[in-house]
From TrEMBL:
Organism whose genome encodes this protein: Chitinophaga niastensis
Annotated protein name in UniProt: CRP-like cAMP-binding protein
Domain Cyclic nucleotide-binding: 11-113
CDD domains xrefs: CAP_ED
One of the Pfam families matching this protein, by short name: cNMP_binding
Length: 192
């Protein structure tokens, strides 16, 4: 197992040596090529994953238009918990933006962590709380922030990876057309 993954889990909870060994047996390592799907819209999500290396985007189709609504990078968790918990088909897709190495955990093995590891429930709760807070902040920004504010917030949220994300995906994330993003960038450049 990746030391990176183990460090991420041990940041959240304490693990005995036996628990760490047990965890190793629950994950499988998978590499996605750029453009490959971790989850396709219409499929029920049955896995979550830790990103060891790479970058992924979350998108949904709205009237035939792709909307990018989040990005995850190294040392973050990914998945569609909404679909996994409800066991309903996902309305969203998760796609690799570049070659991405994942440590995948099935929903069944996630339940084993909850029941077999002393602080397993706590780990799950902390990960879900993080997802909830990010989602709530993004929704608030989408409804209350101007496009300029959302653009500046993008750089705060995704600091250090903005150059790895194409401009049209950034435009989609902040809820504007690419031409509007160019105007926003120009206005902000003139202010500084």
């Amino acid at each position: 197992m990746s030391q990176q993954l183990l460090n991420s889990i041990q940041y959240l909870i304490k693990l005995s040596e036996q628990e760490a060994d047990f965890l190793v047996s629950l994950f499988k390592r998978v590499t996605l090529k750029k453009g490959e799907y971790f989850l396709r819209e219409g499929k029920v999500s049955t896995e979550v994953a830790f990103i060891e290396k790479g970058l992924i985007r979350y998108l949904m189709n709205h009237n035939g238009e792709e909307i990018n609504y989040y990005f995850s990078k190294e040392d973050e968790w990914t998945g569609n918990y909404e679909s996994m918990l409800s066991r309903k088909p996902s309305t969203k897709s998760i796609v690799a933006l570049e070659t991405t190495v994942l440590w995948i955990l099935s929903a069944e093995n996630l339940q084993k962590i909850y029941t077999s590891i002393r602080e397993g429930d706590r780990m799950g709760r902390l990960i879900i709380e993080d997802v909830f807070v990010k989602t709530a902040q993004q929704l608030t920004s989408l409804y209350t922030g101007t496009p300029e504010e959302r653009y500046q917030e993008f750089f705060t949220i995704f600091q250090g990876i903005e150059h790895r994300i194409p401009q049209y995906m950034i435009a989609s994330f902040i809820g504007v057309k690419p031409q509007s993003l160019s105007r926003i960038r120009s206005r902000l450049a003139h202010k500084h």
